[in-house]
Amino acid sequence: MKFPFAAWRSRRSSSNEPSGAAAQGLGTFGGVYTPSILTILGVIMYLRFGWVVGNVGLVGSLLIVTLATAITFLTALSVCAIATDRVVRVGGAYYMISRSLGIETGGAVGISLYFAQGLSIALYTMGFAESVTQTFGHLDQTFVALVTTIAVAILALTSAEVAIKAQYVIMGAIILSLLSLVLGGNLPAVAPQGLGVTTGSVPFWSVFAVFFPAVTGIMAGVSMSGDLENPSQSIPKGTLAAVGTGYLIYMALPFLLSTRADTASLVNDSLVMQRLAIWQPAILLGVWGATLSSALGSILAAPRVLQALARDGVLPRWLAWLGNGSKEKDEPRIGTIVTLMIAIAAVCIGDLNLVAPVLTMFFLTTYLVLNLAAAIEGMLQSPSFRPTFKVKWIWSLLGAIGCLAVMVLINATATLAAAAIVLAIFFWLSQRELETTWGDVRRGMWMALVRFGLFQIDHAEDTKNWRPHVLVLSGTPTKRWPLIELAEALTHNRGLVTVASVLPEGSRDAEQKSNLERLIRDYLIKQNVQALVRIVTAADPFEGTLQLVSTYGLGPIVPNTIVLGASQDEKRQQQYCDMVTQLHQAKKNVVILRDHPQYGFAHRHQIDVWWGGMEANGGLMLLMAYLLGSNVAWRNATICLKFVVPDPNAAQAAEANIQALVSELRIGAIYQVIIADGRSFDEILHDSSRDADVVFLGMATPEQVDFAQYYPDFYQRTSGLPSVVYVMAAPGFAYGQVLGE
């Protein structure tokens, strides 16, 4: 046989769904069991099962069948759980995955699955053509494959209902072939050396990899859900019955083959079953039926996946016409024609030996993801997940692990190739930010992780794990964008940013507040800023701010740093200073930004930190400067630590101390010791930092000064500088230890 091993492995594509094709009101036998068992009893059973028995023996064959069927059985349990939780509409496996794990995951698997199914049609028709040309040698293989491909497509286009009925004929041929095999006789013993081949030399797992696709096919009936009279009963019964039937047949065949044929014949004769059968043409009919049923299953399934992808907006907008269906029964005739073109092109190319292993990986990836979906749904215990067929999540997880193991065993390189393709499609879809009208399990996953994490976090902050959780009181983001820009740069994906606004009481009802939060959130996303949004109403904005700070948060995750804009309103300055005082007393870091109205943060090249020691504000200022400098937008900035001494005698000792500090902290800062020489600090500040892009200055605390009098004077003294960040560290926390000092 010229038909490549890899193509036989890709036999599994028939396991995917001929969805929505049969007449309304299909029962368990016709709608689920028949298509599933036809895809299980396929080409590998006829052409490679003897090879399996010959290489690993009776016990090894029984072990392979049991292991392979166990993985398929676990996957079948997962499929039954998902299928009985919701109606599976057009798209089969894609539909199930997208509604569970999200449209990006579903689309990534669905697009790959579609092309795998389309190309698999060519694999099956080529396999059929090779068996025909072996029997009738004067025929051209490519011509037979093309004619068969077109004929199968015409059958699907004419009526999917007729195509489903044709599977009963195929099933009859398979039953006839099995009966002919059982009633047959023994082969005359042939010594291995007579064939000039050493037998039984293939490793166990290599044989397993060849056989495994033979036990798949469980998805064939699942996508018929929309056409079943009672899907929640038919899908579990039909699917599990097909898996059980296949297991019994595959467990019986090794006994028959090992007792009727010698090892050499089993290993070297792909049509050994034909020689064993009482009526040899019956085996050939079985082989033809298996290949044709596989091709028919794929030509029914692939266009329906394509139709579902187009209707959900996964495909580009200019391909939306692929979602159209026929007027009568919504059959995807346009998608069938497109799929036929892909299959014809593949047949003309002829050599799919390199592509086939990757296709097999796509099908296995589908099963793996379905298992994960069922495992996650069950593990999260979401109230919305209520399947009538209940399965413990651990069994679904075990099925996913089994699928991954089989993928690696079959072809590790093809596994990596398929994973790379699926991930590339996933990221492409994620970039498109597709919107859906259905929910999926991802929110539940994050909720479970958040719940677990919250209960693991201690309420008391420690220096080892300190993170900046910033509450930005920005008002309208577009008007105070530098505040958000500063907060986002300080967190640098290490902490949480919440953009908050206090509106006048009664200005918004609950729905209007929710809509405004959504608009602000969308704006932040467009600006590539990850932040939470909170809007509250209050009679007084300062009181509203204090209430927000005191109540906002969840468990131990509360804002520890408040970012404000500098106040210039003399009428409200007393209230502003009182608010800052109370924020400090609430043990929050207070960061006030006075951004330069013309230059903003300018070139982001120089960060000046005016140093007064690690105590009080010094540690927090240095930490914030480091966080700011590690942000991508500030990656070329230099942190300059500036320290003022009264005279040259103090300069030498100060320089040695700062040099040791900078070396110990490892933050890449430079330092400058400035001799006052009779000049005031204000004069030195303006002269030394006039070229900086941002200046960090520590503020006196309310315990040290009357803040209401201190703040206006401090504000006036620092006018004319570049953008300034006033810092007041929360009392009682050693920020120097966060830096490792």
Automatic annotation (TrEMBL):
Chief localization: membrane
Keywords, in A-Z order: Membrane, Transmembrane, Transmembrane helix
Residue span of region Disordered: 1-20
GO MF entries: chloride:monoatomic cation symporter activity
GO cellular component terms listed in the entry, alphabetical order: membrane
Cellular compartments annotated: Membrane
Protein's membrane topology: Multi-pass membrane protein
Domain Amino acid permease/ SLC12A: 32-471
Keyword Iron appears in the UniProt entry: no
Classification via Pfam families: AA_permease (PF00324), SLC12 (PF03522)
Protein name: Amino acid permease
Organism: Romeriopsis navalis LEGE 11480
Classification of source organism: Bacteria, Bacillati, Cyanobacteriota, Cyanophyceae, Leptolyngbyales
